[in-house]
Design a protein that fits this description.
alpha+beta, 3-stranded antiparallel beta sheet, binds zinc ion
């Protein structure tokens, strides 16, 4: 059992971030994702783990978004994993659209990464070409495929009407 003891919340000018007091190597599990409280709608303390499943994540709600993150939230295995080597006292961040389909509170990203997506509103608002470059959870992949299929169906219907 890996606990969240090494993780600490830092607050600066009301801005919260999650810091680790220990180093991790790439691929290492950092902690489990809590699933004691599941909701059918997103809020600022939840992470999406399925189509209509949003779990309250406790301390992990202080994780900020990054377009070049150092952790992955694997919602199938319910684990937070190091995406690369992480140093002690480093801030932890993940790519929000890797879990969130449609976010409750979208915002503008100023992470400065060369691949920055700028508008962070959930996976459904990003082109496939952008999503392909990121770790994506199963429910996001499934919802993306569904959206594409529906779009194709819609286009086929429009073409049928035109004929
Ligand atoms: Zn960014």
């Amino acid at each position: 059992m890996v606990s969240m003891d090494a993780l600490t919340i830092k607050t600066e000018n009301k801005f919260r971030s999650l810091i680790t007091k220990q180093a991790y190597t790439k691929g290492q599990m950092i902690c489990e994702i809590p699933t004691e409280k599941i909701f059918n709608k997103a809020n600022r303390y939840t992470v999406q783990i399925g189509r209509d499943r949003h779990t309250e994540v406790g301390k992990l709600a202080a994780l900020n978004h990054s377009c070049d993150p150092n952790v992955i939230l694997d919602t199938e295995n319910l684990q937070m994993v190091a995406r690369r080597d992480i140093a002690k006292d480093e801030e932890l961040s993940f790519f929000y659209p890797s879990t969130e389909w449609e976010m409750d509170a979208p915002f503008i990203c100023l992470c400065g990464a060369s691949n920055c997506i700028h508008v962070v509103a959930g996976a459904r608002f990003l082109p496939l070409s952008t999503l392909e470059n990121h770790y994506l959870n199963k429910h996001i992949r499934e919802m993306m495929i569904e959206l594409l299929n529906n779009t194709e169906l819609h286009l086929a219907k429009l073409q049928a009407i035109e004929k």
